[in-house]
From TrEMBL:
The keyword Phosphoprotein does not apply. The keyword Signal applies. This is ADP-ribose pyrophosphatase, mitochondrial. Residues 1-29 form the signal peptide. Its EC number is 3.6.1.13. InterPro entries: NUDIX_hydrolase-like_dom_sf, NUDIX_hydrolase_dom, NUDT9. It comes from Maylandia zebra (zebra mbuna). Residues 184-340 form the Nudix hydrolase domain. It catalyses: ADP-D-ribose + H2O = D-ribose 5-phosphate + AMP + 2 H(+). Keywords: Signal.
Amino acid sequence: MIHLPLRRHLVGPIRLAFTLLGLPHTVWTSGVRPAISCPSSYPFPTSKTISADNTSYCRRHSTMPSSVGPHVKSRCPQYPGSNIKRLSVPDDKVDWTQKWPEYNPVSYTAPSVLNNPAWADPDIGSSPKFNTVDGAVDRTSFEGSYKVENGKPLNPCGRTGLAGRGLLGRWGPNHAADPIVTRWKVDVKGAKIHHSVSQKPVLQFVSIKRKDCGEWAIPGGMVDPGEQVSLTLQREFSEEALNSLSSSPAERAEIHQRITNLFKSSGFMVYKGYVDDPRNTDNSWMETVAVNFHDDLGNSVSELPLEAGDDAGQVQWVDLDSSFPLYANHSHFLEIVAKERKAHW
């Protein structure tokens, strides 16, 4: 990622290190593609009349353009972080209701998951309780009840060409939370800057550059077992975005006050549901809640310096603009935010 001249005079280093996700986007096409290619920034078209997206990812097939097949990122030919190749799944065979007796994908679970870290399930023999809250682990899906076959949950959006858990810790849904922190772009006098073409005020959001793929993205973090999403959003931003764990007591107090001021509002719910993520498999998948927290007066986190964390190559405030390439479908999140805030896109 390159440094862009997007920071105002009060901005300097905020620590960010998040597990990142993309926004889902789905369509069905009448044709059949034998294979899927996944460039670094897939051109997912979006509607001009977009709104807060709280509907089921898997049920929006008829509302999206037909130039892109369904469940695209989840069918990338090579599974990330490995040499594992997915079985090629054509568009018309994604849905589990489509008969495909020859379907026999390779099963893969990453060594980092098989080592049984605290954030991962043990092997399927432990008999997790699906479609419910299993102890402290929420195994319900925003997409509704999902099927379980031979003791394993089935991806509610269809076949991915790979069985097992891949890089994901949980069988079934893996829940994340994405805080989209925004502010107005202003000049040295504090006046909002308007885009020269749209004449609308320009929003900026906190963005990181992922170390794994080198793409800009919205920060995010996994929801801990038993943790409420609202606490995840604030915890991730406090510990990772502001490096509060390594700050002095006085610095932690200031960080806590600024974060509390920003996150005490309910925020704007941008999206809740399934994520078309390249880490997804037939038996494990990502779901997220994305919430926009807006520093309208520019006097909370806007004045704190930004600094990339361990999992992020770089971090900075970035202008919201449809031409700016982002990881997966993250631009779809931001288009919703721009419309809600009546800002340039």
